[in-house]
């Protein structure tokens, strides 16, 4: 297989024009090859022609022809390549006496359960929240103030995990030479995601598609003999030391008192399962504090961000809603960065605890809401927490969330950026109008955060304004708090992905081993493999 990088074409080009570029580059005839787009990005640098940039893999009918073309070609962007193909099904299957239990149906839990199901293990997936259909009704009713917050069915908890109500970004920095990432992307497409996630440089699904995708993936698990149970919160574990003196899990106890025997339990619990963290700590599961980041959400008009990013190319041709990513090292030592940027999206009330306020970003696939928003967060470390308890980071989050809840009177606290800089409550909106889900109230968002974090965020925004003039406009909207960027806890595991309690496998973002949909799904695959390899004695 031959890979060609840096194929550049005009925006709006035809399929045939891409094929002609391939044929000219390799000097081959139409119909003598097959190809697949590996990556598509956009070159929109100022004073440069606007171009789409491709990497493609070309498959030729024989190895001899491929070698001949490579030998004659002096282009540094043309090279031989071999793509790893992930094989989720093991050739030699070993049956467990008891079905493995997966706690949580976020990306980590779903893909762990899916790989186990593909191998005939018939896993039981336990989800404290509801299926997507019921969960969506619960969330919309809460946003519309028709019902109170349901602590087990909200933006954080339910089928698909926190990612279901998000932008559905699939980019990751995880290096995976085994091809798991491609397997996951293909699975998403087979379950109804747009095909362009297979090659876009910054792929996203959108919350409207994600709802369909996670339902389809759940149906696949069930068709393979797995079982997915909603409203099934794990309240406790049964652990026994037996003769060896080594603690081992024997069963899980559900909130309704039901006991499910299990010698293999995957903890894909997500970053917001604070009561479950406490239960695991009480059962002497080894865990430690972990750094993360907290801050605010900032909204700008979508058209402003598009114009800033595309510059003279703005409106010259039809372009996707613009994205951005920025970092800053503040003078007080905190790292500040944009996180989970949602082009053409909404700021949503993502609370999961009574008396706490959390915001997150959400976009549909078309990304055509009036505003674009991003979290602007500053790093926090265990030095910011009170005490050395492994769950001290959780209490740090709670303190900020309770302050935000009080400031907004139970609604999303909102402040204009100019007022955020001065620490005063805004009185009226400017030209930017909120794209919110869940209602808002003018409040002092800056006062919900430690001063060192608020000042670092202000410094970062003013610095970024030099690169993106207008980014620091006084009527840009600031909402808070963004406190669930990642888990504040790391549950320790060994090289076999097992905790100090045998049979317990910490997995995904909540356990501290992932940072988004893709990395969590990859970790879910790895844990499933570890369970199966353990059964084979490898």
Question: How is this structure best described in words?
Answer:
The relative contact order is 0.14. The longest helix is centred in the C-terminal third of the chain and has 20 residues, at 517-536. A 7-stranded mixed beta sheet has the order 14-15-18-13-22-19-21. The chain has a 5-stranded parallel beta sheet with strand order 7-6-5-11-24, covered by helices on one side. It has a 4-stranded antiparallel beta sheet with strand order 2-3-1-4, covered by helices on one side. Helices cover 28% and strands 23% of the residues. The protein has helices at 15-26, 63-72, 107-118, 132-143, 180-190, 207-223, 274-282, 302-310, 392-408, 417-422, 451-467, 517-536; strands at 2-10, 34-43, 51-59, 78-80, 101-103, 124-127, 227-230, 234-240, 248-254, 259-261, 265-267, 287-289, 292-301, 327-329, 335-342, 346-349, 359-362, 371-380, 412-416, 436-437, 440-442, 477-482, 489-491, 504-506. The protein has 538 residues and is α/β, with parallel strands linked by helices.
**Main sheet characteristics:** 7 strands, mixed
- Estimate the strand proportion: 15-25%
Q: What does the overall shape look like?
A: globular
Chain-averaged pLDDT:
95
Share of helix, binned = 25-40%
Task: Considering the chains and any ligands shown, give keywords for the structure.
538 residues; alpha/beta; 7-stranded mixed sheet; 5-stranded parallel sheet; 12 helices
Give the SSE map.
Blueprint: E1 2-10, H1 15-26, E2 34-43, E3 51-59, H2 63-72, E4 78-80, E5 101-103, H3 107-118, E6 124-127, H4 132-143, H5 180-190, H6 207-223, E7 227-230, E8 234-240, E9 248-254, E10 259-261, E11 265-267, H7 274-282, E12 287-289, E13 292-301, H8 302-310, E14 327-329, E15 335-342, E16 346-349, E17 359-362, E18 371-380, H9 392-408, E19 412-416, H10 417-422, E20 436-437, E21 440-442, H11 451-467, E22 477-482, E23 489-491, E24 504-506, H12 517-536
Parallel strand pairs: 5-6, 5-11, 6-7, 11-24, 16-20, 19-21
Antiparallel strand pairs: 1-3, 1-4, 2-3, 8-9, 9-10, 12-23, 13-18, 13-22, 14-15, 15-18, 16-17, 19-22
Helix pairs in contact: 3-6, 3-12
């Amino acid at each position: 297989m031959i890979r060609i990088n840096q194929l550049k074409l005009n925006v709006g080009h035809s399929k045939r024009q891409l094929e002609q570029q391939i044929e000219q580059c390799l000097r081959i005839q139409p119909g003598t090859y097959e190809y697949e787009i590996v990556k598509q990005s956009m070159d929109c640098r100022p004073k440069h022609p606007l171009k789409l940039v491709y990497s493609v893999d070309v498959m030729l009918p024989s190895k001899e022809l491929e070698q001949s073309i490579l030998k004659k070609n002096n282009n540094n962007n043309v090279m031989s390549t071999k793509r790893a193909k992930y094989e989720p099904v093991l050739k030699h299957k070993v049956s467990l006496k008891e079905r493995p239990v997966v706690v949580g149906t976020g990306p980590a839990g779903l893909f762990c359960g899916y790989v186990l199901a593909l191998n005939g293990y018939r896993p039981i997936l336990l989800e404290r929240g509801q299926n997507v259909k019921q969960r969506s009704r619960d969330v919309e009713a809460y946003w519309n103030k028709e019902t109170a917050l349901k602590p087990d069915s909200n933006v954080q908890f339910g089928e698909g995990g926190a990612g279901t109500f998000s932008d559905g970004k699939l980019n990751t920095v995880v290096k995976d030479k085994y091809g798991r990432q491609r397997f996951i992307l293909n699975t998403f497409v087979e379950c109804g995601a747009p095909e362009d996630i297979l090659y876009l440089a910054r792929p996203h699904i959108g919350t409207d598609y994600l709802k369909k995708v996670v339902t389809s993936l759940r149906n696949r698990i069930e068709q393979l003999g797995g079982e997915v149970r909603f409203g099934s919160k794990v309240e406790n574990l049964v652990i026994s030391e037996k003769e060896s003196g080594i603690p081992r899990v024997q069963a899980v106890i559900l909130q309704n008192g039901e006991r499910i025997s299990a010698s293999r339990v995957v903890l894909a619990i997500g970053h917001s399962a604070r009561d479950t963290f406490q239960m695991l700590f009480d059962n002497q599961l080894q865990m430690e504090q972990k750094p993360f980041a907290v801050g605010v959400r900032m909204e700008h008009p979508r058209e402003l961000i598009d114009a800033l990013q595309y510059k003279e190319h703005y409106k010259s041709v039809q372009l996707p809603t613009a994205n951005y990513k920025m970092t800053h090292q503040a003078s007080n030592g905190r790292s500040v960065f944009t996180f989970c940027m949602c082009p053409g999206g909404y700021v949503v009330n993502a609370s999961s605890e009574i008396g706490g306020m959390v915001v997150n970003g959400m976009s549909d696939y078309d990304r055509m809401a009036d505003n674009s928003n991003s979290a602007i967060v500053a790093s926090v470390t265990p030095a910011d927490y009170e005490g050395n308890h492994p769950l001290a980071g959780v209490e740090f989050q709670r303190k900020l969330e309770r302050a935000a809840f009080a400031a907004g009177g139970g609604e999303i606290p909102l402040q204009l950026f100019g007022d955020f800089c001065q620490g005063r409550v805004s009185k009226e909106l400017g030209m930017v109008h909120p794209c919110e889900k869940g209602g808002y109230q003018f409040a002092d968002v800056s006062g919900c955060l430690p001063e060192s974090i608020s000042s670092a965020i202000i410094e970062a925004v003013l610095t970024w304004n030099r690169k993106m003039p207008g980014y620091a406009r006084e009527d840009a909207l600031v909402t808070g708090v963004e406190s669930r960027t990642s888990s504040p806890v790391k549950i320790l595991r060994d090289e076999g992905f097992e905790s100090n309690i045998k049979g317990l496998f910490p997995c995904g973002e909540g356990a501290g081993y992932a940072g988004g949909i893709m990395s969590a799904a990859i970790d879910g695959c790895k844990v499933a493999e570890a369970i199966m390899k353990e059964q084979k004695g490898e």
